[in-house]
Design goal:
The complex is a heterodimer of chains A (136) and B (304).
Chain A lengths: L8 E4 L2 E4 L1 H9 L6 E7 L5 E5 L6 H18 L6 E5 L3 E8 L2 E8 L4 H20 L5
Chain B lengths: L1 E8 L5 H9 L16 E8 L3 E8 L3 H8 L3 H5 L2 E9 L5 H18 L4 E7 L9 H16 L4 E5 L6 H11 L5 H15 L3 E6 L5 E6 L8 H18 L7 E4 L4 E6 L4 E7 L6 H21 L6
Parallel strand pairs in B: 1-3, 1-4, 4-5, 5-6
Antiparallel strand pairs in B: 2-3, 7-8, 7-11, 9-10, 10-11
Helix pairs in contact in B: 6-8
Chain lengths: 136, 304
């Protein structure tokens, strides 16, 4: 499903850096079948990369989504794997990868299962490269 | 590591004002209250951490100048890394100025022949705009001729614009050990992050130490302008009891990230791709910060 030639990471001395454009390319691959936007964000809701035809609400959705995730995390740390948020005008599905959050959202015509499949594919693909990075 | 830098020139040509603005956080207006320097004012300016610029601001009044070339000659002119000679562009005693300059050069040739010589043609703001280039070129040719066999570099400067920063950045750049190595690391950083440009500043003076450019920019004076602007901003922040640490400036064309980098440097990263998010750039700056800090610890000689 995922096919990217370039690596998300780049070596810099003995450190690993993120290549933002490549990450965006990866996200772009999921923006089909009614998906409005795919994002990767840090736990505070700051977007690291975003792709999709409609990214106008991405900041808001990232902020709210990460907040909801955090609340559940506080309740029982480490237990949350996926979050599905059913809204009036669409659906949001979130997952986690390394210390980051993945978020895919679409309009109300998209099925939740489809969104979840995309999130799962993303988290699986990004797990290895993102694990190598050091997060503060 | 101590490096001796001589700052010389006739009385009233602007040496102490320059020094105050670059190293002591004066703004141009503050320099109006400086009086004449008596004899030699030594300042040990901490620059790039362990590098100590041993700045000898030699009072330019005639009595002192005579002294420097006679009894104090060796004391002053030995072990000099850099000689900065300042000329007041409006001086009515050109021949006398050149005579003193020649005396300095002679003393340098005899005591520190490896020293780098920089000539600053100062107070350029007092000349009419259309005359500046011509007069500067004229003086530069003359000075280069007089200075043979020494190779000198001339700058035109004024405390009222960014030309002061340009001159001092170049001077300080010539003092940094391993600067090429530093530049190659900065270049790789610029490439990975996909930045237009990455600039490294010295932390307290905001003089540009190094830069990597991947997208050429039409304003060749942008570095000194930015040094000037950020320094002024930093000073105005501290006057309001706020410590400037970092900022992100965005418009429709670019985003600029200015942040503390290592113990003695600041970094500025320019991104013009609007699809790259701030958080990603900040993340990579943090990675680069780690890398540079480790790199510096290994290479103590870099003093960054």
């Amino acid at each position: 499903e995922m096919c990217i030639r370039d690596s998300i990471n780049a070596e810099y001395g003995d450190q690993i850096m993120l290549k933002p454009r490549v990450l965006t390319q990866v996200l772009k691959q999921t923006t089909s079948h009614g998906v409005k936007c795919s994002l990767v964000m840090d736990p505070d809701g700051s977007i690291l990369a975003a792709a999709g035809e409609d990214t106008s609400n991405s900041k808001i959705i990232a902020a709210i989504g990460s907040n909801i995730w955090k609340s559940y995390e506080l309740h029982k740390p480490g237990s949350l794997n996926f979050l599905l948020i059913d809204c009036l005008q669409g659906k949001v599905v979130m997952g986690k990868v390394s210390k980051l959050l993945v978020c895919v959202y679409g309009d109300d015509k998209v099925e939740a299962g489809m969104l979840k499949a995309k999130v799962a594919a993303l988290t699986e693909y990004l797990e290895e490269p993102l694990k190598q990075m050091v997060w503060k | 590591m101590k490096k001796k830098v001589l700052l010389m020139g006739k009385s009233g040509c602007g040496k102490t004002s320059m020094r105050s603005i670059i190293f002591a956080n004066y703004i141009a207006r503050d320099t109006m209250r400086l009086g004449a320097t008596i004899d030699v004012e030594h300042s040990h300016v901490r620059f790039l951490g362990n590098l100590v610029l041993n700045l000898w601001d030699c009072g330019g009044q005639e009595a002192f100048m005579e002294n420097y070339f006679s009894s104090q000659r060796e004391h002053i002119f030995r072990n000099v890394e850099v000689l900065i000679y300042v000329f007041d562009i409006e001086s009515k005693e050109l021949q006398k100025d050149l005579r003193y300059y020649r005396n300095c050069l002679e003393a340098i040739i005899h005591n520190s022949k490896e020293a780098k010589v920089f000539c600053l043609l100062h107070k350029m703001d007092l000349l009419a705009l259309d005359q500046r280039e011509q007069i500067f070129k004229q003086r530069e040719t003359e000075l280069k001729q007089i200075s043979i066999p020494l190779k000198i570099t001339c700058f035109r400067t004024s405390i009222w614009d960014e030309t002061l920063y340009k001159a001092w950045s170049s001077i300080v750049y010539s003092l940094i050990p391993n600067v090429k190595l530093l530049e190659s690391h900065l270049d790789k950083f610029c490439q990975i992050v996909e930045a237009d440009e990455v600039v490294l500043f010295e932390r307290s003076t905001f003089l540009v130490i190094s830069h990597a450019t991947h997208k050429p920019h039409r304003d060749i004076h942008r570095f000194e302008k930015i040094s000037n602007i950020i320094k002024q901003f930093k000073l105005s922040c501290s006057k309001s009891q706020a410590q400037f640490q970092s900022m992100e400036v965005r418009n429709s064309n670019f985003a600029a990230f200015i942040d503390v980098f290592t113990a003695n440097t600041y970094v500025m990263v320019i991104m013009s791709d609007p699809t790259i998010q701030s958080a990603a750039t900040l993340l990579n700056i943090a990675v680069a910060r780690n890398h540079f800090t480790k790199f510096i610890q290994k290479n103590n000689a870099m003093n960054l």
